Amino acid sequence: MHDIKWIKDNIDLFDKAMERLGLDSISLEVTSLYQEYVILLSKLQTLQNERNNSSKTIGIKKSKGEDTTLEIDHVAKLKMGITKIQEESNSINLKINSILEVIPNIPSEDTPDGSDESLNIEIKTYGDKPNFSFNPRTHDEIGAKLNMMDFDKAADMSGARFVILKDKLALLERALSFFMLDIHTQQHHYTEISPPSLVRDKALFGTGQLPKFSQDLFKTNSENWLIPTAEVPLTNIVSDEIIPSENLPLRYTALTSCFRSEAGSAGKDTKGMIRLHEFKKVELVSIVKAENSSAEHNRMLECAEEILKKLELPYRVVVLCAGDLGFSASKTFDIEVWLPSQKKYREISSCSNCKSFQARRMNARTRNSNKKIELVHTLNGSGVAVGRALLAILENYQEEDGSIIIPSVLIPYMNGLEKISIND
Fold it and tell me: In this structure, what CATH number is given to the domain that contains residue 47?
């Protein structure tokens, strides 16, 4: 959410930001509306002052036993005028907010220019891609060969883009989840949260999914929404709060199921586990002082990277260009894991600095050293997507007979199991 006063005072900067995002600027429209709003508020204040003075005059005259008919008629007319102006100003304010609430965040200065993902910039790679003496299978082929991954029965009970994991693959999913939580809580000092999976409109508005992206969400008959990511409940922990500065930073992590309708993605990555309607993810969220958000962003990236390093999965990190940023993000790092069957890197984590954009929508604040109230900065990142980590292990650790070697860090979480074999 943008500050209309900031837009009015920084029209050139705002217009340039919209240009970087590939959007038409709304600065003229919204500032014109704001000017109308300010004029109406001035008129309203004048009428309210006149009404208050007239009411005092009526009180004085009544105390003296004098006739107050004219003053009472005047106050009645003033009240009608006040009501009319209040209705006009409220209508204009709603128009302003309806425009601002669907405008994306402004890209940071160090976010590269570019119109789409082809212009994202690779900033690092890690690990060696595996060399196979055989043609590597896809993760869904491996799962089917193991008889531990069932898309057909999942589709029968739930529809397309669901999966049932069985036996050792279900255990592997659990192992990955618990391993990630342990690393983030014990080594990276995030506080584990078990949040609700159903939220109200307000929570999704706060993090930016509503009102613009309702088609990407699942809504219940109770008017609640299934969370698309734990970012929503974790970030909203500080909504409408003034957090003592000494309590910052706040760092939260959670393992949740995530639910996404994937509207508009028909025919795109629909095979296997790449793009499901329901998947598990370990999320990271940080609430920090404004001056610390850039450093926290780099820290969060390192925390997510550490998971893949410990799993010994090859990956790369890219910084997203302006045209590929998510709605609430000012700067984003994507971590992409190597998938041998596709011979390319695929996103497994996205770490975003939203700066004050979400905080303004949520009214999340702190007091600075001068005791002045200011907005916090919010950051979120996948730490990481469990399903994509699982399929990356299946593909990178596969053997010719279809068996899967268990990464060494997961063996304690797998009850000592070192390999998932066809005959298991």
Answer: 1.10.287.40
Write out pLDDT tens, residues 281-340: 999 999 999 999 999 999 999 999 999 999 999 999 999 999 999 999 999 999 999 999
pLDDT tens digits for range 242-291: 999 999 999 999 999 999 998 655 555 667 999 999 999 999 999 999 99
The count of structural domains within the chain is: 2
Quick one: 52 and 168 in the same domain? no
8 A C-beta contact, residue 277 and residue 313: no
With contact defined as beta carbons under 8 Å apart, do 160 and 167 qualify?
no
Query: 349 - beta bridge partners?
Result: 335
Residue 281 forms part of a structural domain: yes
Measure the CA–CA gap between 256 and 316, rounded to whole angstroms.
Answer: 25
Residues of the chain with pLDDT under 50: none
Q: What range does the domain containing 62 cover? A: 4-100
Same domain, 153 and 209: yes
Instruction: Tell me which residue of 251, 242, 255, 240 sits closest to 195, measured CA to CA.
Output: 255
Report the alpha-carbon distance of residue 201 to residue 71 in Å, rounded: 47
- 54 and 185, same structural domain? no
Neighbouring residues of 106: CB distance < 8 A, sequence distance ≥ 6: 2, 14, 17, 330, 357
Question: Which amino acid appears at position 165 of this protein?
Answer: L
Residue 289 exposure: Cα atoms within 13 Å on the Cβ side: 12
Of 68, 100, 132, the position where a domain reaches its end is 100
Neighbours of 361 (CB within 10 A): 23
pLDDT at residue 264, as a whole number: 59
User: Which residues are part of the catalytic machinery?
Assistant: 260, 275, 347, 350, 388
Length of the chain: 424
CA dihedral 17, 20, 23, 24 (to 10 degrees): 60
